[in-house]
Design brief:
By secondary structure, the chain is α+β, with helices and mostly antiparallel strands. The chain is about 25% helix and about 30% strand. It has 3 helices and 7 strands, in the order E-E-H-E-E-E-H-E-E-H.
């Protein structure tokens, strides 16, 4: 069994483990959770610490985890922050951006993507739900069989 951080809860059901974070998630925790949920590990197309999470079927990104300068996401603070970009329902984007820890998508379509700070300010379960939504929104489209 893995070591579980004190701020997380491990639930085992039907042979699968699901981590529920009661507080925010860090970069490594996001990668561990995505691997546990979907069996996907990040790839690093820019040979740095910025990881892309892709669907194995269509190679589309469903998340981008990176370190950005705080001023690039609209903060006046110095330094850097770990963030995750996820695809989101455009109806939710505006209301999420009004909350602490959420920002217009960094280097992505700002109508359909959102940036979330990974510093503990956003609840881990909410981050998980938004990753799941992004995974669904970027999944391959299943074609319906036409009937005559």
């Amino acid at each position: 069994m893995r070591n579980v951080e004190p701020h997380s809860l491990l639930i085992k059901a039907e042979g699968a483990a699901l981590f529920l974070w009661r507080e925010g998630m860090k970069k490594a925790e996001v990668f561990a959770w995505v691997k546990e949920m979907y069996g996907i590990e990040p790839d690093y197309p820019w040979a740095d610490g910025n990881g892309v999470l892709r669907h194995p079927e269509n190679n589309k990104w469903f998340a981008l985890v990176m370190e950005v300068r705080k001023d690039k996401i609209g903060l006046s603070e110095d330094g850097t922050a770990d963030v995750i970009n996820v695809k989101c329902d455009p109806v939710l984007v505006g209301s999420l951006r009004e909350r602490a820890g959420f920002y217009p998508a960094y280097h992505m379509n700002k109508d359909k993507w959102i940036t979330i700070r990974l510093d503990g300010g956003v609840d881990g379960e909410e981050i998980q739900r938004l990753i799941q939504l992004s995974y669904e929104l970027t999944a391959p489209v299943k074609k319906k069989k036409r009937t005559l």
